[in-house]
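Duplicate of #3305? Posting structure anyway:
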C-alpha cells in the first residue's frame, strides 16, 4: 500500500531540525558564559564554575593561618563538589529556558 508524502510535515520537520540546531548552538555558547560562585560550608574557599563545569577561579577570602592541612583540604573538596552540583544545576536551568517553549512536532 503506497503512502502519500506529506510535504508540509516534511517541511515542518526540516524547519524544526534547523531551529533545534540553532537553539543547541545558543545553549552551547550560554553554558560557557554563565558562571556560578559557590563556597565551602565554612566559607573558607570560593569556587567559580561555568555551567559547562569549567572551574574559572578559586578564591580564599580569609586567612589560612592556624588551619590544619586536613581542614583546608576538606574545605576545598566541599567547594569543588558544590561547584560540580552548581554547574549541573545551571546547565539544567539553561536547558529548560532554551528548549521549554519549543513545540513538539505533530503529524497530521
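Output from current build:
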Amino acid at each position: 500500500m503506497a503512502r502519500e508524502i506529506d510535504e508540509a510535515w516534511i517541511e515542518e520537520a526540516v524547519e524544526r531540525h534547523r531551529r533545534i540546531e540553532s537553539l543547541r548552538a545558543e545553549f552551547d555558547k550560554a553554558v560557557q558564559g554563565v558562571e556560578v560562585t559557590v563556597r565551602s560550608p565554612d566559607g573558607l574557599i570560593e569556587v567559580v564554575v561555568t555551567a559547562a563545569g569549567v572551574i574559572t577561579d578559586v578564591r580564599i577570602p580569609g586567612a589560612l593561618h592556624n588551619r590544619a592541612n586536613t581542614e583546608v583540604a576538606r574545605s576545598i573538596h566541599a567547594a569543588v563538589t558544590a561547584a560540580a552540583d552548581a554547574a549541573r544545576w545551571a546547565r539544567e536551568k539553561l536547558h529548560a529556558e532554551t528548549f521549554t517553549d519549543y513545540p513538539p512536532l505533530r503529524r497530521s
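Confirmed duplicate; merging threads. The chain has a mean pLDDT of 89. The longest helix spans residues 69-99.
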